[in-house]
Amino acid sequence: MTPREQPWVAEPEQTGRILVLSDNPIARAIAVIASAVGRTVLVESADDGGPGLEPQPGDAVVLCDHDAPDAPAVLRAALASEAVYVAMMASRRRAEGLVAELSAEGVDTGTLHVPAGHNLGGKAPGEIALSVVAEIVAESYGRPGGPMRG
Questions:
Q1: Domain boundaries, the chain
Q2: Could you give the CA distance from residue 138 to residue 101 in angstroms, rounded to a whole number?
Q3: Which Gene3D superfamilies does this one have (predicted)?
Q4: Which of 12, 41, 56, 121 has the lowest CB atom count within 10 Å?
């Protein structure tokens, strides 16, 4: 009898952590969904980036609060780090000022994902979190995301 081919692997590839600032319903949903796909998540509740938000090589950084007092510093540090994914929750309009500020300082914002996530159309925290985790997973495999059907 031929063994059945499974479309999954028992142990996913090792990946970096997902660092999320700050604690809100979207951040908590990211933690649940990302944990379900085998990712380690650190949600930093301090609005100033806290002591734990130090990206390591391979980490993903998601700023869930573009109004956090230290948002520019968090993004500056994340974009200068070896994080493989840096994103911010914000509408394009609301992010323009912050991106312009960082660009004026000479920060390369070309890899910043704003708004964070894939365009799934969801509005609820869990739906938004799903789109962000999907984008992180796609990025970690070098994929653009989108439908599997050809």
A1: 18-140
A2: 29
A3: NAD(P)-binding Rossmann-like Domain
A4: 121
